[in-house]
Amino acid sequence: MANLTQIELQNLKHLINIQDISYDKFNTYSAQCVDPQIKQLFTKSAQDSLNIKQKLMSFLNE
């Protein structure tokens, strides 16, 4: 793991959690959409959140 301070580690975990929640919410919104353009927007937002979460998690493995 990278040499992170305790505060940095807590902040990183918090940001990862936020992206995880965003991913779940966007997927839920997408599943409820009827309009294909809005559905696509939520699906892309969910994927973006997942990508950001994975990038943030990579800092824990350095």
Number of strands: 0
Strand residue percentage: under 5%
Enumerate how many helices there are, as a single number.
Answer: 2
Large-scale geometry: elongated
Distance between the termini: 5 Å
Poorly predicted ranges: none
Radius of gyration: 14 Å
Compute the number of structural domains. 1
Helix content: over 70%
Instruction: Outline the biggest β-sheet.
Output: none
What kind of assembly state do the chains in view correspond to? Answer: single chain
Q: Compute the average pLDDT.
A: 94
Order of helices and strands: HH
Category from helices, strands and their pairing: mainly alpha
Could you explain how this protein is built, in words?
- The structure is a single chain.
- The protein is mostly helical.
- The chain has one domain.
- 81% of the residues lie in helices and 0% in strands.
- α1 (6-32) runs antiparallel to α2.
- The longest helix is centred in the N-terminal third of the chain and has 27 residues, at 6-32.
Provide the descriptors you would attach to this structure in a database record.
62 residues; mainly alpha; 2 helices
